[in-house]
Records
---
Amino acid sequence: MNAQEVKNLIRGDRLTLSRILSQVESQSEAGRQALEALFPFTGRAHKIGITGAPGAGKSSLVNALTRQLRRQPDAPKVAIIAVDPTSPFSGGALLGDRVRMPDLQRDPGVFIRSMATRGALGGLAAATEAFSQVFDAAGYDIILIETVGAGQAEVEVVNLAHTTIVVDTPGTGDDIQAIKAGILEIADILVINKADRPGADQSVRYLQAMLEMGYARSGTAGHHASETVNSVAAEKPAEPWLPPVLKTIAIESQGIEDLLGAIQAHRKFLLESGTWQVKERQALQKAIQRAIAQNLMDFWEAKITPELFEATLQSVVERKLSPESAAQYLLQTIQGL
Amino acid sequence: MNAQEVKNLIRGDRLTLSRILSQVESQSEAGRQALEALFPFTGRAHKIGITGAPGAGKSSLVNALTRQLRRQPDAPKVAIIAVDPTSPFSGGALLGDRVRMPDLQRDPGVFIRSMATRGALGGLAAATEAFSQVFDAAGYDIILIETVGAGQAEVEVVNLAHTTIVVDTPGTGDDIQAIKAGILEIADILVINKADRPGADQSVRYLQAMLEMGYARSGTAGHHASETVNSVAAEKPAEPWLPPVLKTIAIESQGIEDLLGAIQAHRKFLLESGTWQVKERQALQKAIQRAIAQNLMDFWEAKITPELFEATLQSVVERKLSPESAAQYLLQTIQGL
C-alpha cells in the first residue's frame, strides 16, 4: 500500500477500501502491509457489537439503527461487518447479504461487508479487528459488528467492541437458556426485539431482575467494564453502568431512537469513566499477543520437518508418547527450549 | 497421580475420577501429570457431540439418550460433559445441573460433569478434550459432549467428537438462520426435537432438501468427514455418509431408539470407512499443536519483563508502533527470532 493509496482510502475512496479489505481478509502480505500503513490513523471509531441467538432479528436491527444514525445532524459514516460462521451451503456471506436493504447499499456514507472466516481459532476475532482498523482509518465513525450466537468466539469478537448490544426476542421459559448461554454478562445494552410478540414486557422485567441480581451480588456493578476499570485504572471508583433493557420492533423501526440514545449514553459513560481508554489498551495488548503467538508458530513451523512431525504424531497415535511430551520433544529438537 | 490412583481410576472409583477431573479443569501441575499417566489408556471411547441453539432441548435429549444407552444389553458406561459458557450469574454449571434427572445421578454407570470454562481462546476445546481423555481412561464407553450454540468454539468442541448431533426445533422461516449459523455442515445426525410442535415434518423435509443440495453440489458428499477421508487416507473412495434427519420428543423419550440406531450406524460407518482413525489422528495432531503453542507462549512470557511489555504497549497505544511491529520487536529483543 503506497502513500497515494493511503491518501485515497482516507479521502473515502470505496474501491480502494474494498481492495484493502480483501487483501486483509486473505491474510496476504499486501494486507499485512496495509494494516501497518493504516495503523497510525486508527483509534477514533466507536465499535459496536451486536449479538444474540439466530432469529432474534439482528440484521433488521442493524439496518434500522444504521438508518437512524445516518439521519442524525452529523450524519456519521457507518460501516457494517457481518460475521457469519462459514457454511459450505451458503458460502457464508450469501444469506447475510440478502437481507440488507438496497437504500443502505446505495448510501455513500454506509459500507457493508460480510465475512465468513474459517480457519485458525482466533481467526474470527483477528479478522474482525483488522477490518475494524481499516474502516477506522477510512474515517468511518461507527462500526457495527454483527455476529451470530454467544459462543466463545463471539465473545472474543464483541470484546473488541466498545459497546455490546445483546438482542433477544420475547420468550417464556427459554429465557433461562439465554442466561445459560452466558450472554447477559457481555451486554452493555439489552434489546428485546420483535416486541409486538406476546411476553415482551415479561421478558424485559425478567432480564432487568436478572441484571439487578448480578448487580447486587457483585457488590458494585455486575458488569465487566466497570470491574476492568476498577482493577486496571483504579484511581477512583468508576460509576457503574447498569445495562438498560429496551424494546424494539426493528422491521418497523420502532424503539430505534431510544436504542441510539442508549448507545450515545454508553459512549459518554465509557469516555467519562476512563473505560474507553482501558478497552483500547486491552484490545491493543491482545493484538500484540496474537501477533507474538502467530510469529512464534510461524517460526516453529518453518523449523520443523513434516517427516519429524509425522513420526512424532505416529508415536502419539500408538500411545507411546503423550501430546504434551510430543510437543516438548519437538521443541527441544528444534532449538533446545 | 501415582500407580495406585491410576489403578483406582481404571477400576471405576468415582472419587478418584472426580478429583482428577478437578485437577485437570484447574490446569494444575497435578492435572497435567494425570493426563500424562492416563494417556496410554485412552483411545477407546465413542465421543458424541450434541449441539444446537438454546432452547432446542439438548439436555433432555442427552438425558433420554443416556437412559436408552443404559438399557442396552451391554449397558455401556456413559459420561456426560455439559459445556456451559461461563456466566457470573449462574456460575455456569448451576442451571445446567438442575435439569439433570435424579435417576441418572444415582446410576453408577453414569457420570455427569458440567464445565464452565473461561480463559484463553481454545480453552473450551482443550478442557473438553482433557475431560474426554480422563473418562476414556476410566472406562467410559460413551462420552456425550453437550454444548450450546454453533459458534466457532462450539465447532472446535464438536470437532473432537466422532459423531456430532445437531438439535433443532420445528420452525418456519427461522430455519434459514440455522443454516446461516453454519451448523448443517458439522452434523452427522440431525434431530428435530419437540416434534409434537407444528411444522416438524416441514422442518425435516426442509433440512433433508438442504442436505441433499449440499450433497449434490459437492459432487461426492457434502460432508466434512468424508472429505477428510478422501484427502487424508485416499486409498479408496469412502462410502459417503448422508446425515439422517430424525424426529424426537425427548421429554417423552419418543424417537430415542431410532436416534441410538443412527448413532450406532454412524459408528459402524466411521470404523469401516477409516474415518474413525483419521479423526483420532487429527485430534491428536491438534493436541500436539496446542501443546506446542502453549509451551512457546509460556517460554515467551517467562523471558519478557512486564516493564518491557508495558513500554512497548504504550508505544502502540500512542500509535508509534503497530501491534505486528511490537510483536516482532519483543521477539527480537528476547531471542533474536
---
Amino acid sequence: MAKPSKISGFPEWLPEQKIAEDRVIALVKNIYESFGFAPIETPAVELLSSLGSKGVIDKEIFTVQRLKAEEGDKAELGLHFDLTVPLARYVAQHDHELVFPFKRYQLQKVWRGDRPQKGRFREFYQFDIDIISRNDLPLSCDAEVVTVITLVMEALQFGAYTIRINNRKLLAGLYGALGLDEAARKAAIIAVDKILKIGRDGVSKELAKIEGISEAAITTILRSTEIQCSVSDLPQRVAELSIASPLIDEGVQELVTICALMPEKAREKIRIDVSLARGLDYYTGLIVETTLDKHPEFGSVISGGRYDDLASEFTDQKLPGVGVSIGLSRLMELAFTEKLLSTAKKTPTVALITVYNEAERPMLNEVAQELRESGVSTEVFYKSPKLGKQIEYAEAKGIRYVVFVDAATRQIQVKDITTKEQVAVPSIRAWADSIRTR
Amino acid sequence: MAKPSKISGFPEWLPEQKIAEDRVIALVKNIYESFGFAPIETPAVELLSSLGSKGVIDKEIFTVQRLKAEEGDKAELGLHFDLTVPLARYVAQHDHELVFPFKRYQLQKVWRGDRPQKGRFREFYQFDIDIISRNDLPLSCDAEVVTVITLVMEALQFGAYTIRINNRKLLAGLYGALGLDEAARKAAIIAVDKILKIGRDGVSKELAKIEGISEAAITTILRSTEIQCSVSDLPQRVAELSIASPLIDEGVQELVTICALMPEKAREKIRIDVSLARGLDYYTGLIVETTLDKHPEFGSVISGGRYDDLASEFTDQKLPGVGVSIGLSRLMELAFTEKLLSTAKKTPTVALITVYNEAERPMLNEVAQELRESGVSTEVFYKSPKLGKQIEYAEAKGIRYVVFVDAATRQIQVKDITTKEQVAVPSIRAWADSIRTR
C-alpha cells in the first residue's frame, strides 16, 4: 500500500473546481448550440498513421498498446493530440452521412506525449467549433465563428479581453510583394508569430536570418506589425506601407467583409492586428486570437482560423473550414489561480434536510423528493447526529439552505446559511420558484 | 492518402446519435445532481501499479507510453478500465480536501485492452454514482442509490424494466450455514451469478465442482435462487429454507430496512431476487441489477452494490461505500439498434433563417441573435441559393422551423416543417416562449 500521488501533467480538479468547470462548459456549450453547432465525439485513439499525417508525427504522441501485446508487437494506436486531425478523419469517413455545411462542436481531452515538465499539461480539454463545407465556404462562416468568440468572452466574465484578427492572404501578399518566396514567407510568419515573446528587436533578428531577405523588407515587415487598428482604418493603414498586390487587397477585403457581416455589438469588440501570425501551417485566410488584458503571459484563450483543405490526407474532396479552439483546462487553471470564478460550492445540493431521528427519515425522503421535483437539489442528512453537526456539513459543502421539517405538522422552516434568516415555507413549489430566480 | 476506417471496438456516433446520447446524459446528470452527487473527473491514465491493485492486473489493460520513449523503457501508465479504481485512488489522495460523506458522480470513458472482437467495446462510457463515508455508512445511503436507479429508469422511458436487489450477507449466511468455507462461498457466488446464462442445471453442475459441497447444499442453494419476491414476503420465504444463522438474519434485515427507507413509489419498483449474485469480489452487502424486460440478453443496464472498504490499497482508512454504474455506450448502442429513442435531429438548430440575397445578411444576423437570446437555437443559411435548397437543408438536418424575414418591413413568417403551417410572428419573444413549451 502506498499513498497515491499526482501524475505530473495530468490535472485533476476537486469537486468544487469541477463544478466551476462544468458551469463554464455549460455556458460555452449553450452558445455553441444556439448557433446550431452539433456535438460529436471521436475515440481517444486514432491510428498512428492518421496522427502522423501532415508531418505532425514530430508532435509528442502517446502510443496505446495492449498490456498483453506480444513481445515485439508495434503500437498501432495513439491518443489524439488535438481535435483537428480527428475531425478531418471523421468528416472524410462519414462523408455521406453528414449534411454540409457541417457545423460541429467537440469537447474532449487531448494528450501530449511530452516528458513531464513543470507547469506543462500532458492531458487537457479542448473545446472546439468548426464549420466545414464542400468546395467553397463563404466568409459569412468566418464572421459567425468570430461572433461566437465575442459571445463566449462576454459570458465568461473573466475581465477585459482583446480579440485580434488578421488574414494570412494579407501576410502572404505583403511578404510576397517584398520579394520573399514561399519558404521565406513561412519563416517570416514563424518569426512574426513570436513578437509578444521576443519583441520587435527579436523578430528583427529572426527575420535577418531568412535567406535573401533585404533590409528594406525587414523594415517594412516590422512597420506592418504596427498596424493595430479598427477595421475601418485598415485599408488606409495598409496603403501607407506603399506596397501593393492583388493578394494584399484580397486579404484586406476579406477582413472588411468579415467585420461587416458581424452584428455591431460583436464588431465593436474586434481589433485588426497585422502582427498576428499564428504558427500553424494550415491556415489560409482569417486568423484569430483572444487574450485577457490582465494576463498577456497566458497567451491565447480562444484561437483559430480558416483552412482551405481540412482533410486532404483522408479524401480527394476539397473541404474548406473555419474554426476555433478553447484550451479549456489551461484556462480553468488560470481561473482557479487568479480567482476569476467562484469555487464555493462543493456540491450541487441547494437544500439540506436535517434529521432529528431515524424514524422520521422515510417522511423526510418524501419531502426531499418533492423539493427535487420542484427543481431544488436536495439531500437528507445521512445520519441523525446533533443539529449543529448537520449545519456544519451544509456550511462545509457550501449548501445554502438548511431545512427543518416538523414531524407532527409537516410544517417546514428554512434557514438561509448566507443571511442567517429563517423563514416558514408554506408551499414547497412557491419556495422553489422563489430561490431559482434569486 | 487512404480512406479512413473504423477502429474495431471504438464506437463513434453520428451527430444525431451524439445528440440523443447527450439528451440521456443530461437527464441522468439532472437526477444525480438533484440528490447532491457532485461531479469529479480523473485523468484517463493511472499508474499501472494502481490499476494492478486488488489482483485485477489480470484485466485487459491498455498501456500508454511516449512515442519517443527510449528503447526498453517500461510503460508506467495505463488507461483506466473502470471508474472504481480511480475513485478509490482519488478519495485516498484528496482525503483531507473532501467533505464526507462524499457523494460523487463520474461520467468518463473507460478502456479495455482486449483483442479486437466483434461486438465488444474496447472504449465506452461509464456513468457512476457512489457515496463514500468514513468508518461507517448507514443503510439510508443504499436506499438512496436504489431510489436513484428507479428515477433514472423511469426517465429513460426505454420500456418495462426490473430492478432486482439482493444482499451478499444473506448469500454468505446461507452458503456458510450449508457448510461452505470462504473459498467455496466465492465459488458458489460465481456459479449462481451465471444462472441467466447457463440456467439452473448449468449452475447445479458448476456447484457440484466445488470441493466438499454436499448434495443437500446444492439443492438448498438452488431452492434459494427461486426466492424472487416482494420485500414483505422475504422473511417468510427465507424461513422456508429451514436454515438459520445470524448472518442470514442480518442480510434479510438489511434488505427490509433499505426498502423501508425508500419512497413508496420507488419501493414498488423493486424485486428481491436471491438468485442475484454479481461476479465482482468486493461487494459486501446490497447488490443490485436492472434489466429491460424486452432485452434480457442485454444484461444489466444499471448495477452495483455496497463495499465495506473502497480504498484499502491506497490508505489505512476504512472507507465504506455504495454505488452503481451505467454502461452508457452499450446502452446507447442498444437504444439505436432497437430504436428506443429518436435520432431525428442532426443539429441543435430549431430555426433556420432563409437568405434571399447577401445584402440582407447583416440584418438577418441581428434577427438570429434576437432569437438565440430568446432561447431558440438559430442558423442563418450560409449562402443564398434558391429557397427550395434552403428548405431542403432544414429538412435534411431535422430543423423544425424555417423563418422568412421581409427585408423592407422586417415582418417575420415562420413555417413549421412538420405541419407545413406558416404563420406570421409579430413578437420573437412570444413565439420563442410558445415553441419552448410545445
